[in-house]
Amino acid sequence: MAKRPTIVHTIPALRREIARYRKSRETVALVPTMGALHRGHLALVRAGQQRADRVVVSIFVNPTQFAPTEDFGSYPRTMKKDIDALADAKADLVWAPSPSVMYPTDFATRVAPEGAALAGLEDKFRPHFFGGVATVVAKLFTQVTPDFAMFGQKDYQQLRVVTQMAKDLDLPLKVVGLATVREKDGLALSSRNVYLSELERRHAPVLSRTLKACAARIKAGEPIAMVLEEGRMHIRQAEFSVDYLEARHALTLAPVATLKDGPIRLLVAAKIGKTRLIDNLGV
Question: Per-residue pLDDT tens for 50-80?
């Protein structure tokens, strides 16, 4: 039976464990998660193990990044299963604070990111989101004091926001973005995939297929606006409602008009049934 990681729920307990690592001159990688772990999260753990001596996985469903109309209450919570998976993956420490630990009653400070956080993508549809993400990630960074922080590229705008925040605040760590882990049919792994019905799951890979087709056409020199409009139409034909399918500069997320404006990242968000999925791909 795999050795279970140490699990801590309070700031003093977390700091004792981190101090023990530092006393041994060990480096630390942090994998921030909201639980409901899948193969993508475990790939981040493995990548952290390649870069650092110790891997800390945070599990916290962050209420400040959910709007009242979103799925905070029903978001999958599978702590026992998550701990078993992290034991198999040989993670060292699980940081699992309660909401009252992260946001005590007198909590009064929030991070308000700009730049990529105001790119008109996720922020257009979830204006509360990046403030909540930036605040909780800033707290995780200061709590764990990692040398590396591991994020998946599936949440690409989030990755850009977090990377810029660490840079702007002079935080002594490196944010590492890892390639999206996918199912065999191309669907990006996500904790929200469990919401998909059998029929919706069959339609879901249209997002990744459309991204690949659009990227190939743009790379071949076809007009970006035309390619994207036809891509949106193709996604709608698969029973999705499209929030956006956009071509953006891969670093700033500013709009691009031609290949010369690159490097280019394609980003998509669309809803099928009650489930909203996002994905992205470089051109």
Answer: 999 999 999 999 999 988 877 888 788 899 9
Tokens for 243, please give them: 């929030």
DSSP 25: T
Q: Which tokens go with 171?
A: 């935080």
Q: Give all domains of the chain, ordered by start, each with its CATH number.
A: 6-178 (3.40.50.620), 191-277 (3.30.1300.10)
Nearest Cα to 180, choosing from 78, 40, 52?
40
List, edge to edge, every strand of the sheet that includes 241-249.
241-249, 264-272, 275-282
Answer yes or no: pTM beyond 0.70: yes
Task: Return the active site residues.
Answer: 41
